[in-house]
């Protein structure tokens, strides 16, 4: 009757306390470039920058390591952002015409971002009726005046309202309607069409009582708020797009929808002004696109900058994304590869200064941020210390390397510096430098490697909060690609006009999809790495500090082993270039191994001590000796019915039909087999009994849960031969007395192959082995009962610890493994974890995750968790991510569940497929094509922003106008529970708006919301994870 039994008394309190000291889940920081940016702001006094996104996120950046994150409760687009200068406060406008006031506040010496007030504009003010005030429909533009204490709001109806910013309330009797403005214009202009929406509001640097108002029709008005009258009127007739008021107030510049801009004189004289002093169409005379925004900046050395976006000839270059920079006779057309969101200049804003003296131009694009140095000749691009576009080419794989030796780190940094031009003498530094980073220097250096669609591998400094680019490795130069001939024909010389200059590094187009990187592995002790790609190419590379010119050894390995009846229908293999090739300093290829058929590589591993590399595809696996440049082993893993593996990634129509047919057959078969079993049809009675049993049980007694019935997978499932993991280990395979090199391979059908390797010993005093051939002999072959795909394999020594990496023990960098006690092998499949003794391979311990939890394993890693209470205590545990987005941690080798957390939304298939764990209990996964979310499972090893900001306003004084309240816990968009701060709305009612992390109080946070701000759209990310996203992933998503 009852399907559970009493096992033991409740959990040990001592163990529970230890768990709290070892494990804690936190989403800490988002690395990369914000997805779908929509607004930009800059505080020239505090030197901080804010970016708003279409999902309602607010991100503030200062000096490297200074970051603040917030999220509007409404999933609405941030259309405008404005800093209150020097106050650490930010006013945001959403596309639903709601206003929000954010504040950077300090707690325990650290700063974080909170939303203080919100204000939803009413549809109509006052009473309805013809005599009522004008409607406040949609805000088009905001101008902060009176040191940020008041805001002017321009609307679509042509009215200008005034808002008290500290309280976010409208100021009565201050509204300026279009009728009042029309009284100051001549009758013939008044009788024309309506003024239209307010397109621009500009303030005077030295006289805050004067406001420049620009209407869509083209009318410009300098309005004196003190006298409530128009000082000057400029009768423009061209549709207005943007305005800028020169620093002295004597000159205005307006840009228009026809691609022209006009300069108006605001000096004393007759009013209204009928004509501008200068009107020009810079890229005319043919029809041009609108100039969306224009800036005028004065220089002490004479002359001025005019900077504008758009205005390109409509027919010839209407599809270009350009910002033009004009000074005197010098015009440069900055040509970007993605849409322009906004731009600003870093310049002097102090009223006493006579000139603007622009130092830098920052341009926010849809896919990257570009900053140019305006003080250096040629206006070079300044390298960004953060906000790098991770997706300059689509990310296809990633890997993390922890505890990188200082010598290797310096060599990689040096190679990266040689790739970029050295900064000229007198070059400016990064201009966004606000705040202070309070985080301690990282105790160890961490590398994040990302493989990309264009055949590049990028190296990132992942040691701290700011993800900094270090070095880029390109593999495309080794191959002759499909597009080279077409590119040479297309490279016709462009005209000298417009004077285009390509700027930015975002380039989503790949020369050849076969170049895509699928797997990377790096040995941090020998500076050797392996890069494997989509067309079966496996490259072994070695770091060199100097450029060289050398030929690359090429070898082929047939993984089908002449098996009959299989014909590859996919892409051709890449053709390598012959002869000596020039290679820059950095990682240089030594050996190229080409798998046949040229299918995507699904697994790879490198053992530099033995000079061996192993790789697997959907057809089998191979072992290659890259010291002797000779193959050692090739094994085909295909099942006779595995036709899908032969069709390649571009020929799936017939196979999809076959796969669906097989799925329906399995469903039908399981239903038939289910009917044959005697079952109790009274399900409601069963549920009631189960509930009664649960209530009757003591809460301090642990029960064995009801295990789900798992259907064995068919042996002829498509893609059953895919090699999922490869592993090298020095362990006991042949007998218990002698250990030696072994290689392990796991497949999609639950098969595990273990090979004993005969590797020649290294000569005395040398780390290089002799030149004798390596031999491989099949030692064991294990078939898992349910044929679940094997995700990972690891050998544990006599103390139950994982074996060290190559050279780690021989160089005394890690404790030597225990070779006296019995070894064990941990095999992780998608359904369960199982520990087998070696060399007998008899089952020792197991945990059936699918049977207990109803989920499947997607990612697995062994990690070390250090205690926060004791410096010297640490445990090695198994961390796994499931298809439901949950993270589980198990003890090793006992496989006892420790903790589990909800990490990623189960619908986010790409996020789950992109997850990578680190060796110290952290992890990364993509929340959008351009952003990694960083999370920590360790209570001690946490990387999060800890920073402070010097602001000039007193937060305590402002607390009188509103009060922060704490609301109950709610679920954030990515499934992580958090505490929400509920600021008061303008009528005093609580208005919950944003989340904070529920973390330990002794670690003050610098971000308000470390959650996935773009998780609502993260399921749409473009991520090529061949061999990682499986049929089960899609079934889980659809079901």
From TrEMBL:
Record family assignment: Belongs to the WD repeat L(2)GL family.
Short name of any one Pfam family annotated for the protein: LLGL
SUPFAM superfamilies: WD40 repeat-like
Domain Lethal giant larvae homologue: 280-380
GO cellular component terms attached to this protein's record: cortical actin cytoskeleton; plasma membrane
The protein, known as: LLGL scribble cell polarity complex component 1
Record-linked SMART domains: WD40
UniProt cross-references to PROSITE patterns, sorted A to Z: WD_REPEATS_2
The organism's place on the tree of life at top rank: Eukaryota
UniProt repeat feature WD, residue ranges: 447-461
Protein keywords: Exocytosis, Repeat, WD repeat
Molecular function in Gene Ontology: GTPase activator activity; myosin II binding
Annotated segments matching region Disordered: 968-1009
One annotated GO biological process: establishment of spindle orientation
Cross-referenced InterPro entries: Lethal2_giant, LLGL2, WD40/YVTN_repeat-like_dom_sf, WD40_repeat_dom_sf, WD40_rpt
């Amino acid at each position: 009757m009852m399907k559970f039994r009493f096992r033991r008394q409740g959990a040990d309190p001592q163990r529970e306390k230890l768990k709290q000291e070892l494990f804690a889940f936190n989403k800490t920081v988002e690395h990369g470039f914000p997805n779908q940016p929509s607004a930009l702001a800059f505080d020239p006094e505090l030197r901080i920058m804010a970016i708003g996104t279409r999902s309602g996120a607010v991100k503030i950046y200062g000096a490297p390591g200074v970051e603040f994150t917030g999220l509007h409760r409404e999933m609405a687009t941030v259309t405008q952002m404005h800093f209150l200068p020097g106050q650490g406060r930010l006013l945001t406008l959403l596309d639903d015409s709601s206003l929000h006031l954010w504040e950077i506040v300090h707690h325990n010496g650290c700063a974080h971002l909170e939303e203080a007030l919100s204000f939803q504009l009413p549809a109509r003010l006052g009473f309805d009726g013809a005599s009522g005030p004008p409607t406040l429909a949609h805000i088009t533009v905001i101008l902060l005046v009176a040191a940020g204490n008041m805001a002017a709001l321009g609307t679509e109806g042509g009215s200008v309202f005034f808002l008290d910013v500290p309280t976010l309330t409208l100021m009565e009797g201050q509204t300026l309607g279009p009728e009042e403005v029309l009284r100051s214009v001549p009758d013939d202009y008044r009788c024309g069409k309506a003024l239209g929406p307010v397109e621009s509001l500009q303030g005077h640097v030295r006289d805050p009582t004067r406001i420049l108002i620009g209407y869509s029709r083209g009318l410009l008005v300098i309005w004196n708020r003190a006298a409530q009258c128009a000082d000057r009127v400029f009768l423009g007739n061209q549709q207005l797009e943007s305005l800028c008021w020169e620093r002295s107030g004597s000159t205005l510049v307006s840009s228009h929808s026809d691609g022209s801009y006009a300069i108006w004189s605001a000096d004393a004289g007759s009013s209204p002004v009928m004509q501008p002093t200068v009107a020009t169409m810079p890229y005319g005379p043919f029809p041009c696109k609108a100039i969306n925004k224009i800036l005028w900046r004065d220089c002490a050395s004479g002359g001025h900058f005019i900077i504008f976006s758009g205005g390109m000839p409509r027919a010839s270059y209407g599809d270009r994304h350009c910002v033009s920079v004009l000074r005197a006779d010098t015009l440069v057309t900055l040509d970007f590869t993605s849409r322009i969101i906004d731009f600003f200049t870093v310049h002097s804003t102090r009223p006493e200064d006579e000139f603007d003296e622009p130092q830098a131009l920052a341009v926010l694009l849809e896919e990257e941020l570009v900053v140019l140095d305006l003080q250096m000749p040629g206006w070079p691009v300044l390298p960004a210390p953060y906000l790098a576009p991770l997706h300059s080419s689509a990310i296809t794989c990633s890997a993390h390397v922890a505890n990188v030796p200082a010598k290797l780190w310096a060599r990689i940094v040096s190679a990266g510096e040689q790739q970029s031009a050295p900064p000229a003498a007198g070059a400016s530094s990064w201009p966004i430098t606000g705040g202070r980073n309070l985080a301690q220097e990282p105790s160890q250096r961490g590398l994040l490697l990302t493989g990309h669609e264009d055949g590049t591998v990028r190296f990132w400094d992942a040691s701290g909060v700011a993800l900094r680019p270090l070095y880029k490795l390109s593999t495309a130069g080794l191959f002759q690609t499909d597009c080279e001939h077409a590119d040479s024909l297309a490279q016709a010389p462009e005209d000298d006009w417009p004077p285009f200059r390509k700027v930015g590094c975002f380039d989503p187009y790949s020369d050849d999809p076969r170049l895509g990187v699928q797997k990377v592995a790096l040995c941090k002790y020998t500076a050797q790495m392996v890069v494997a790609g989509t067309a079966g190419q496996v490259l072994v590379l070695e770091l060199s500090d100097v450029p060289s010119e050398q030929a690359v050894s090429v070898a082929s390995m047939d993984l089908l082993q002449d098996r009959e009846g299989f014909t590859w229908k996919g892409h051709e293999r890449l053709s390598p270039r012959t002869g000596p090739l020039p290679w820059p300093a950095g990682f240089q290829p030594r050996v190229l191994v080409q798998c046949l058929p040229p299918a995507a590589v699904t697994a790879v591993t490198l053992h530099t001590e033995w000079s061996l590399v192993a790789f697997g595809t959907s057809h089998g696996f191979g072992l290659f000796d890259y010291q002797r440049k000779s193959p050692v082993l090739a094994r085909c893993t295909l099942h006779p019915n595995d036709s899908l593996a032969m069709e390649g990634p571009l020929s799936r129509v017939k196979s999809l039909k076959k796969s669906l047919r097989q799925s329906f057959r399995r469903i039908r078969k399981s239903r038939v087999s289910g009917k044959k079993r005697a079952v109790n049809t009274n399900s409601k009675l069963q549920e009631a009994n189960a509930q009664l049993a649960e209530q009757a049980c003591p809460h301090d007694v642990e029960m064995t849960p009801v295990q789900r019935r798992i259907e064995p997978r068919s042996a002829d499932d498509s893609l059953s031969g895919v090699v999922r993991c490869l592993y090298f280990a020095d362990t006991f395979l042949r007998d218990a007395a002698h250990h030696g090199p072994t290689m392990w391979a796991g497949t999609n059908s639950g098969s595990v192959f273990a090979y004993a390797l005969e590797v020649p010993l290294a000569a005395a005093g040398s780390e290089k082995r002799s030149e004798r051939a390596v031999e491989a002999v099949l030692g064991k072959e294990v078939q898992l009962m349910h044929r679940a795909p094997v995700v990972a394999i690891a050998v544990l020594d006599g103390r139950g610890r994982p074996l060290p990496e190559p050279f780690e023990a021989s160089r005394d960098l890690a404790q030597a493994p225990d070779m006296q006690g019995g070894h064990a092998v941990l095999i992780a499949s998608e359904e369960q974890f199982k520990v087998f003794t070696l060399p007998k391979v008899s089952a020792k311990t197991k945990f059936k995750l699918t049977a207990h939890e109803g989920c499947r394993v997607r990612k697995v890693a062994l990690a070390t968790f250090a205690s926060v209470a004791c410096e010297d205590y640490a445990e090695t545990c198994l961390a796994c991510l499931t298809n439901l987005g949950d993270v589980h941690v198990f003890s090793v080798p006992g496989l006892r569940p420790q903790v589990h957390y909800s990490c990623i939304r189960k619908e986010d298939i790409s996020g789950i497929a992109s997850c990578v764990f680190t060796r110290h209990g952290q992890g990364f996964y993509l929340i959008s094509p351009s952003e990694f979310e960083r999370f920590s499972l360790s209570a001690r090893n946490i990387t999060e922003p800890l920073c402070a900001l010097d602001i000039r306003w007193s937060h305590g004084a402002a607390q009188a106008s509103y009060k922060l309240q704490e609301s109950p816990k709610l679920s954030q968009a990515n499934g992580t529970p958090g505490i929400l701060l509920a600021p008061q709305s303008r009528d005093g009612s609580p208005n919950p708006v944003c989340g904070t992390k529920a973390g330990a109080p002794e670690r003050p946070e610098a971000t308000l919301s470390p959650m996935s701000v773009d998780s609502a759209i993260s399921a749409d990310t473009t991520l090529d994870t061949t061999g990682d996203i499986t049929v089960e992933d899609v079934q889980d998503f659809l079901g």
